[in-house]
């Protein structure tokens, strides 16, 4: 059950939707999450009252097409699965939203089953 946050600079609702679909489809394809397991926070920043900051760290030239993707999910995926996920998010962000792969910044945070309540004040993953 990943929780996904996508932040994009000057993104329309259509672009945010496309980016959300790109991340979700990549999660389904690469790590096998169920298709109906979609929990996302999609936020566009106007560059004035809210904005995103970036530089050219590690030789990756980013510009105002920047998209930050933060994924929180339960631990257990291999390094190879994570690498496939990052690659597929970048590919689908380009295909669905026209975002250049160099502008797709992904971070993945893992936690344990007891760290989730999916509603009703219950930790559903705790056996």
UniProtKB/TrEMBL annotation:
<dbReference type="Pfam" id="PF14552">
    <property type="entry name" value="Tautomerase_2"/>
</dbReference>
<dbReference type="InterPro" id="IPR037479">
    <property type="entry name" value="Tauto_MSAD"/>
</dbReference>
<protein>
    <submittedName>
        <fullName>Phenylpyruvate tautomerase PptA (4-oxalocrotonate tautomerase family)</fullName>
    </submittedName>
</protein>
<dbReference type="InterPro" id="IPR014347">
    <property type="entry name" value="Tautomerase/MIF_sf"/>
</dbReference>
